[in-house]
Amino acid sequence: MRLRARLVRSRHAQNAGETVKIYTADEVAGELKVEYKTVLRLIKRGLLKAIPGIRHKRITEQELNRFLGIRERQGGTP
Protein backbone atom coordinates (compact mmCIF):
# COMPACT_ATOMS: atom_id res chain seq x y z
CA MET A 1 0.00 0.00 0.00
CA ARG A 2 1.33 3.40 -0.91
CA LEU A 3 0.67 6.26 1.48
CA ARG A 4 -1.11 9.30 0.15
CA ALA A 5 0.16 12.16 2.29
CA ARG A 6 -1.63 15.44 2.60
CA LEU A 7 0.70 18.39 2.26
CA VAL A 8 0.03 21.14 4.75
CA ARG A 9 1.87 24.38 5.45
CA SER A 10 3.14 24.51 9.01
CA ARG A 11 1.91 27.35 11.20
CA HIS A 12 4.35 26.56 14.00
CA ALA A 13 6.80 29.42 14.58
CA GLN A 14 9.86 27.18 14.16
CA ASN A 15 8.71 25.72 10.85
CA ALA A 16 6.71 28.63 9.43
CA GLY A 17 6.03 28.14 5.74
CA GLU A 18 7.51 24.64 5.68
CA THR A 19 5.41 21.91 4.04
CA VAL A 20 4.54 18.97 6.28
CA LYS A 21 3.23 15.57 5.15
CA ILE A 22 0.29 14.27 7.19
CA TYR A 23 -1.22 10.77 7.22
CA THR A 24 -4.50 9.47 8.61
CA ALA A 25 -4.46 6.77 11.29
CA ASP A 26 -5.93 4.39 8.70
CA GLU A 27 -3.05 5.06 6.27
CA VAL A 28 -0.51 4.53 9.06
CA ALA A 29 -2.23 1.25 9.99
CA GLY A 30 -1.88 0.07 6.39
CA GLU A 31 1.79 1.03 6.30
CA LEU A 32 2.52 -0.73 9.60
CA LYS A 33 0.34 -3.71 8.57
CA VAL A 34 -1.71 -3.52 11.77
CA GLU A 35 -5.35 -2.82 12.56
CA TYR A 36 -6.67 0.75 12.78
CA LYS A 37 -7.47 0.18 16.48
CA THR A 38 -3.83 -0.74 17.10
CA VAL A 39 -2.74 2.67 15.83
CA LEU A 40 -5.28 4.31 18.14
CA ARG A 41 -3.87 2.28 21.06
CA LEU A 42 -0.32 3.37 20.18
CA ILE A 43 -1.50 6.99 20.25
CA LYS A 44 -3.34 6.50 23.55
CA ARG A 45 -0.25 4.90 25.16
CA GLY A 46 1.91 7.80 23.95
CA LEU A 47 4.11 5.68 21.70
CA LEU A 48 2.87 7.47 18.58
CA LYS A 49 1.95 11.15 18.69
CA ALA A 50 -1.01 12.48 16.75
CA ILE A 51 -1.70 16.11 15.91
CA PRO A 52 -3.59 17.51 18.92
CA GLY A 53 -7.06 19.03 18.72
CA ILE A 54 -8.29 17.07 15.73
CA ARG A 55 -11.18 14.61 15.96
CA HIS A 56 -9.76 12.28 13.31
CA LYS A 57 -6.25 11.25 14.22
CA ARG A 58 -3.53 12.55 11.92
CA ILE A 59 0.16 11.68 12.15
CA THR A 60 2.97 13.69 10.59
CA GLU A 61 5.60 12.00 8.43
CA GLN A 62 8.27 13.10 10.91
CA GLU A 63 6.43 11.38 13.78
CA LEU A 64 5.90 8.20 11.77
CA ASN A 65 9.61 8.11 10.91
CA ARG A 66 10.51 8.66 14.58
CA PHE A 67 8.28 5.75 15.59
CA LEU A 68 9.82 3.51 12.93
CA GLY A 69 13.35 4.57 13.90
CA ILE A 70 14.09 6.19 10.55
CA ARG A 71 16.43 9.15 10.75
CA GLU A 72 16.42 11.98 8.25
CA ARG A 73 19.64 12.66 6.39
CA GLN A 74 21.38 15.81 7.50
CA GLY A 75 23.17 16.53 4.24
CA GLY A 76 26.75 15.49 3.58
CA THR A 77 27.78 12.00 2.58
CA PRO A 78 25.60 8.98 3.49
What does this structure look like?
- This protein is α+β, with helices and mostly antiparallel strands.
- Helix content is 33%, strand content 17%.
- Helix 1 (25-32) packs across helix 2 (36-45).
- The longest helix has 10 residues, at 36-45.
- The N and C termini lie far apart (27 Å).
Secondary structure blueprint with pairings:
Blueprint lengths: L5 E4 L9 E6 H8 L3 H10 L12 E3 H8 L10
Antiparallel strand pairs: 1-2, 2-3
Helix pairs in contact: 1-2
Compact description:
By secondary structure, this protein is α+β, with helices and mostly antiparallel strands. It has three helices and three strands, in the order ββααβα.
Described by strand count, sense and barrel closure, the largest sheet is: 3 strands, antiparallel
Strand order of the largest sheet: 1-2-3
Residue share in helices? Answer: 25-40%
Number of domains: 1
Count of individual beta strands:
3
In sequence order, what are the helices and strands, one letter per element?
Answer: EEHHEH
The averaged pLDDT comes out at 82
Q: Which overall shape is indicated by the principal axes computed on the Cα atoms?
A: globular
Low-pLDDT regions = none
Number of helical runs? 3
